[in-house]
Amino acid sequence: MRSPFSAARARRALPTGRRAVAATAVVGLLAVTLVWAVWPDRPGFRTESALLTVRSGPNGDEPVDLDTTLYLPRDAAAGRAAPAVLLAHGFGGTKESVRTDAEELAERGYAVLTWTARGFGRSGGQIHLDSPDHEVRDAQRLLDWLAERPEIRTDAAGDPRVGVVGGSYGGALSLLLAAQDQRVDAIVPMITWNDLSRAFLPESTGGEAAEGVFKSGWAGIFFGGGGNVGSGPAGISGTEAETPEGAPGAGPPSPAPGQGPGTAPGVPAVGALPDPSCGRFAADVCAAYLRIAATGRADQAAVDLLRRSSPAGVLNRIEAPTLLIQGAADTLFPLGEADANARGIAANGTPVRVAWFTGGHDGGSGPQTDSDRVKFLTAQWLDHYVAGTGEAPGETFTFSRIAGFDAMDRGLVATSYRTDDYPGLGGDSRTEVAVAGPAQPVANPPGGNPAAISSVPFAGSLSSLLGGVAGDIPGQHARFESEPLTEAVDIVGAPTVSLRAASSSGEAVLFAKLYVVDPEGAATLPSGLIAPIRLDNLPTSVDAAEPVTVTLPAIVHRVEAGHRLRLVVATSDQAYTTPIEPAVHTVALGDTPVSLPTVDSDPIPTEAVLWRWILVGLIAAIVVGLVVLVAVLRRRHRRQDTSIHPEYADTPLAVRRLRKEYADGFVAVSEVDFEVHPGQVVGLLGPNGAGKTTTLRVLMGLTQPTAGEIYVFGHRLVAGSPVLSRIGALVEGPGFLPHLSGLENLKAYWRATGRPEADAHFEQALEIAGLGSSVHRRVRKYSHGMRQRLAIAQAMLGLPELLVLDEPTDGLDPPQIAEMRRVLQRYATDGRAVLVSSHLLAEVEQTCTHAVVVNKGRIVASGPVEEIVGDSPSVLVEVSDPTAARTVLDGLGGVRVLDDADGQLVVDTNGTARSEVVAELVRAGIAVDRVVPRRRLEDAFLALVGENSRGSGDR
Q1: Pick the CATH number of 434-602 from 3.40.630.30, 2.102.10.10, 2.60.120.260, 3.40.190.10
Q2: What is the rounded distance in angstroms from the CA atom of residue 517 to the CA atom of residue 515?
């Protein structure tokens, strides 16, 4: 899908010359065509870069240099003024971080001004965290500068027609600027905060920010000087990877706070540590961080400073229509931040629209469908409220959740939904789910170490890979679990739960997490989001504890029927600062179940969905055509030879003088002749290109032989022959529908064969394959080995008398290979037989009763494996000089030196006495350390086909 920011660039087709055109005209036309082809695409905009000096600060008289670039539509001029967009980057970024977005907006007809915020890159000044007196006043001065440009449309003198777009750090700036300067006509804040003090000191029971739990992981990235945290949806302000030049350390050196020499002037006296070195951070900001980081708690001065840089206190002054875009995969600024901004702005009567997407600071841009949706909403908002074109976007709420993988590019796919009214974090309705478990003691580790792994900056969903086992430390968490859900629940919003806690210390820091557990026990913590809790004045006995309601972070997640909810309450987390004193708390459930918010919404159709239906229609037409063709062929073949060759009536497979030659003269199989009898596991062996796969394809009716016959229980085999129903096969590799479970795939396959369901032996096939309860899981969650075993089960479904497998252990690890060996041996009972092609000679030796060795389209050996191995005349020779020994042995008549994976000498004596071989080596001055017989199938194989033998390429 094309980006809505991209301008349409259609080239007119060049006229083609006619034969009657004169030669000179043809030459001229070719010259024009060549120039047109090599002339570079000219962008629809021009740029101007400058280092602008603006005056800001508390008194408006402090100069600071800002590194800027202005993108102007190519036709923008005094008589063709363009609406403007102020495009702000994320924390740690520069103006280059938003270059792609600026170009797309400029192609759309906007004049776009980007700049590197103070304290970053080439801009001067210090970082004040979007202070109204500094970063916000800097942006006001940029609005003044835009108003003076003749190419910029204005509403009045000094008032440019302008929208402000920004992500994260730039998103908060857009909110604060709109509150401080009424010239702003529309804003699009993305993945940003409402209250910076609550964002870094969250508390999920409604307590004050000063009592919140310090989000030390993210704070360390912000203040440590090396964090690039301005990423959001791809192609949206500040969304590309931030450049190293944009980090705070790009200017003067910026050591970790409190670890360098020097004195920062103006450090507040309240709890300040002496002589911090803060690089490009303002002294008061750095000092507040130092105080919080040292204790894990905030004093009122620090809270006041962070709230000064927060939109929360000025939302009632925002009159610019606001599109709030927030990511669901965001442990830094979760969905609740956008919800608080939406409620505060809407209370003022200002138009507000909310959109959630599947990415965020932890999830990047999300799938392409999400990125396209967000771009469309942004363009629609700016076009109406800034450019004055298009209908009013309305206030429809949209959100999305991950639906699976794209079959084409293997990327994630999101399904988007809409509803007319924004429901907030509470949803339209709620589903109550009871969780159970006794009161449990949990220990707070000394110094907060070891800590659970859940809410990891930039990778909040990491804990979903840990299965809730490695992520939560034994003894440091309590678990409460529900029964399997009887029907699926789509959570859209913030779940709540009631808890009780007690502690001998009188206080506790806890972390509540809501896992989703599938039937196999694998636990997923949606986006790694957790609810930090700080409780004071706790009783010593949990029986005396009052229940508290905990609001968990808002999520968008589908809980499938049969899955369970697991509420975990832990005492530590890597991303947060916890009390250093060891303590033991008791945690119990409160008086209410887990409450899950849901939203009544409709899916948003996309171009991909429309094409998917078209593709489904085409596939359906092809399938119908194939079904008709197969029916006709089957009917025709039923009329053909139905006689039984009496010699092979009880033989599962007899191949007689098989030959396959292609139209270009290539001979893949020249003469193959062998049998497979009941109870046998026969290995079909040969080097690459020997003709193994071609033989199997002919056997399965996938290609026609040039000559020879194949009999299955005496029936002559032809394509579409009814006797094929007595064969189970895996030749071309397994193919399953990923959204169905293993059992559902098997049932769908059996229905496609047209045979009665009563003829399928699901339980027996699955027991032989050894899948257990995994057969009820969706195939997209299967490992490669599980897919292979499911394919074997599919081939076994009717318990066919002959099982044909091509490389069944391909890609399996040693334990899986051993299990596959047992599967095949179990199957070859009760008169059944197995033919297996494999390149793992050691496995064939342990699995197969018989072997057929093919080389260059011909059989060079066949019979019981023991006999073939016994015929191997090779020995292993360990010598002091292998290179010299090889030269000596090559000179002995009839003796061959074979390759060995260990770099040792494997010698085929071919009748020559071992003593003579040893004597010859000793005479040549080569010390012989050991001579041992080699009786392996691999040795026999090499002796039969030659160490360098190759086929001419199988087809």
Answers
A1: 2.60.120.260
A2: 6
